[in-house]
Specification:
Blueprint (H helix, E strand, L loop, with lengths): L1 H14 L5 H13 L6 H5 L9 H9 L4 H10 L8 E10 L10 E4 L10 E12 L9 E8 L5 H13 L7 E4 L6 H6 L6 E4 L6
Parallel strand pairs: 1-5, 5-6
Antiparallel strand pairs: 1-3, 2-3, 3-4
Helix pairs in contact: 2-4
């Protein structure tokens, strides 16, 4: 039964991958099955990726997944009897040497570029995920998207939470790091059907 459900899920996900869906599907499997990948070339060596290595670059260029449809598919896999626990966070991807990377922005980072300012140049990503278990590290990302140069982490997180909650059958509990413990986030999420727990920064 579980095998049949997995096949059904994979077939549904396959339909929402947009262009180059065959190669995209194989690349996804390669990512899941490759323990350590230090470059795209490593993924092309996976036995489940049956295409030549240039196809990986074509996939990343051509693929346009239907993110909303995929999110709804993920939500269908969640048990409906319990209130879901969601976690949201922001991550900086430091790319100081990638001078041709589109839309690099100044991002907060633990590792600074120099001096005392904890910043770097790269891209920021916002993630909201379902936490299925009380212990362990497995989560299901429902939305994982880049924060564009005209957005900030608060705006992106609010939009993502709204998108997720519109499709949940029950009111979720969402937890957030101290970066979201501010008035703008609380005010912008006041009309979203979710209970929010935020860690506050120490005042000492």
């Amino acid at each position: 039964m579980k095998s049949d459900k997995l096949k059904e899920f994979r077939q549904a996900a396959y339909k929402y991958l947009g262009r180059a869906h065959d190669a995209t599907f194989e690349l996804t499997d390669a990512i899941l099955l490759t323990r350590n990948a230090y470059s795209l070339a490593d993924l092309s060596l996976s036995p489940v990726f049956r295409r030549k290595w240039p196809s990986i670059y074509e996939v990343l260029q051509d693929c346009r997944p239907q993110r909303q449809k995929l999110m709804q598919l993920y939500i269908k896999q969640m048990p409906k009897q319990d209130r879901p626990l969601l976690a949201g966070d922001y991550t900086a991807w430091s790319r100081p040497d990638a001078v041709t990377l589109i839309e690099r922005t100044i991002e907060h980072s633990i590792v600074s570029m120099g001096g005392d300012k904890p910043i770097t140049v790269g891209q920021g990503y916002s993630t909201i995920a379902w936490i299925p278990e009380d212990s362990g590290s497995w989560v299901l990302p429902l939305r994982h998207e880049r924060i564009t140069s005209w957005e900030n982490p608060i705006q992106k997180a609010v939009w993502q939470l709204q998108q997720v909650c519109e499709h949940l059958p029950t009111r979720p509990i969402s937890v957030w790091d101290s970066e979201y413990g501010c008035a703008p986030f609380i005010l912008k999420t006041s009309n979203i059907k979710a209970d929010i727990l935020v860690r506050l920064r120490s005042v000492t």
